[in-house]
Write a structure and sequence with these properties.
Strand content of chain B: over 45%
Largest interface: A-B, 29 and 24 residues
Largest sheet of chain B: 6 strands, mixed
Largest sheet of chain A: 7 strands, mixed
Strand content of chain A: over 45%
Number of helices of chain A: 0
Order of helices and strands of chain B: EEEEEEEEEEEE
Oligomer: heterodimer
Helix content of chain B: under 10%
Structural class of chain B: mainly beta
Number of strands of chain A: 11
Shape of chain B: globular
Number of strands of chain B: 12
Number of helices of chain B: 0
Distance between the termini of chain A: 35 Å
Distance between the termini of chain B: 41 Å
Order of helices and strands of chain A: EEEEEEEEEEE
Chain lengths: 114, 115
Amino acid sequence: DGGITQSPKYLFRKEGQNVTLSCEQNLNHDAMYWYRQDPGQGLRLIYYSQIVNDFQKGDIAEGYSVSREKKESFPLTVTSAQKNPTAFYLCASSIAGGSPKTQYFGPGTRLLVL
Amino acid sequence: AQSVTQPDIHITVSEGASLELRCNYSYGATPYLFWYVQSPGQGLQLLLKYFSGDTLVQGIKGFEAEFKRSQSSFNLRKPSVHWSDAAEYFCAVAAYGGSQGNLIFGKGTKLSVKP
């Protein structure tokens, strides 16, 4: 079955620690996205990538970093510079080029601070 | 700037009753509009989308939405709600310009269903 997988389901971060959230898709989509979700805030775009080896900052990129070395994978690193990392993180993918593009979402990773 | 407003943070309806969730958007041209649903602790599932053509769009799980340009609205409806419809619902519009294709989400409406 085609889809998007995110791991782990829950992740715990200690003070000063970087953590990496995994996102893998087998939908053959060129574009991938990372969102942060906080209660009552909807979804806010962190980073997106339209093609391998290229990515752009979204609305709230500070304290986060990404890489896009493979079409199937778009890992997100939450760095120690992100002072309030506790949130639900969602990865999505879509076809690239032109508009409109329907985004398909993974099951999410919940990040908690110890 | 583009924006999406979902005026109702939380709605409670009785099982079997009809449902309408409101969505208003701000956009200069013909918008591309989406409704997603999220069960607790899960990802988002696409319910339906409007790109062009018929302004009444049918989706999955018995949902429909109507695009009204004059009111800048894209309200989601269901004639008879089931307990399994309890979830959070998000309206989104596709951005234009430099971030063409990116989605702008509303803050969501949480639906509770009374037995």
